[in-house]
Design goal:
This protein is mainly alpha-helical. It has one domain (about 10-40, about 70-265): Growth Hormone, Chain: A, CATH 1.20.1250.20. The chain has 10 helices and no strands. The chain has helices spanning about 1-5, 15-35, 45-70, 80-90, 95-120, 130-155, 160-180, 180-190, 190-210, 215-265. α5 packs antiparallel against α9 (about 190-210) and α7 packs across α10 (about 215-265). The radius of gyration is 19 Å and the shape is globular.
Length: about 270
Amino acid sequence: MLSSSSVPWQRQGGEEYSSYRRWGSAAWGLTALAIGLTHFDAVVPLHIVLLVTLSALSAIAAATMGKLVLTPNAADGSAAFKATALRSIVQQREVLCCLLIIAVAGMAESNISGMLFLYLRTEMKAPETTMSLCLSVDVVSEVMVFTFVSQALHRLGPWWLLTLGLVCFCVKSALYSTARSVYGVIAVESLHGFCFAPMWTAAVHLLSTHSPPGLHTTAMSMLWGVYAGVAPALVGILSGKVLTLYGGTGLFLFSGVLFGVSAGLG
């Protein structure tokens, strides 16, 4: 929500988005590492205290940002206004195409993010802290790539940058299927920034550029909702079946195929 709300502050096209987004990635990674290193058997588990504190801070930040970016149109919460806003967004061909691509990519990524920990625990017998370490490695690479990805956006354009990120996701999925140790999986995780940062920056640029004036925040919320909400819901049950029947190799190859389809759509 905060990420979506920051878009109206930025220049048309969201060129500054990657600079803001890297700080969110850094905070996410530090939190994941802190929770992963927490002792869960304490009387008052530290991870519960940490989550409650961060939730309170997020609520305060959301309330503050809501006052800053609220516009007269946004105050209209009627169903008619919401329907008109959504219709005006999806009527843009570029926006609809981008949302479709991100939906397929979200299905592929949810295969990995939703089942990677189970794969590490069951097939590789990895310790509990491994997943938090993987997330932290993810974030380090994200912060690095988000730092310079705006330059790639200017050089390649949004559609080529989007395709580049999806192709990198295909390569990453294939490398997962060849990893035979926990350290191999962690090494593959270091490529995450080269996959997610280009894809997400390009998608934000496309929606920010082509969404109707005054509806940028709504468009960004739709983008995240499709990627992290609709897509995982559509593929969630299938992911478990694929992991059970074909193991981690089959799951990661399946994700690679979905990323390939999304890259082809781009």
